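User: Okay, second chain of the day. Same drill as before: sequence in, structure tokens out.
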Amino acid sequence: MKYALISDIHGNLEALEAVLEAIASRPVDGYICLGDIVGYGANPRECLERVRGLNPIAVTGNHDAAACDRTDIGYFSEQARAAALWTREQLTLSERGYLASLPLRAEAEGLSLVHSSLNEPEKWHYILSQFEALPTFNLLSGKACFIGHSHVPVVFEEKEGRVTTHPPGMVMKKDARYVINVGSVGQPRDGDPRAAFSLWDSESGSVAVIRVEYEIKPAQEKILQAGLPAMLAYRLSVGQ
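Assistant: Same drill. Structure tokens below.
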């Protein structure tokens, strides 16, 4: 099976449509969404509709949970909190119900799926380092865990108790385990403003991160027109 893995769309319709167009030209059997369909961007409803139409295997993200009042947003930054409250007001009861129905964890082909980490997924821990990956490896029963949340595509490899970090894109080794961040569709934070998604072949074990150009300016203009914090628009052009 070949899967397209999308995460951290964050209401950025322009980025999502560019990614879905890129996926359409590839042989994909199914979709996996690792959370944060909404939040930050100005098109939460449209992005939610497009993702639901893919019938993905999906887990919830912290901004999805915030939009349906399933998580405390007290730790959010001022800009994130404003976007979360605005997004909550835009969604219908049915849309909030869909987000509320998404699990914290799921599986696909024996691999784990979670937005943040396998340890305390409801507390939304970031995995940005080898040390931060250790608790997830300790709870990982299968070959790999796909994650989102940090918006930075990266591979953590564990072999014989030693964790190393690798650039995105690889073929899983038989004698190693992995925690893999699939990148962000709608708000990359690795210095590359292009939208990111991943392709996973469950038979060969290959994982590829694909970058896609999209029209950033319209997405920025809609954020400003909605009265959302200007920083949320600016960061799209710098990938931060």
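The two ends are 33 Å apart (CA to CA).

User: Thanks, on to the next one.
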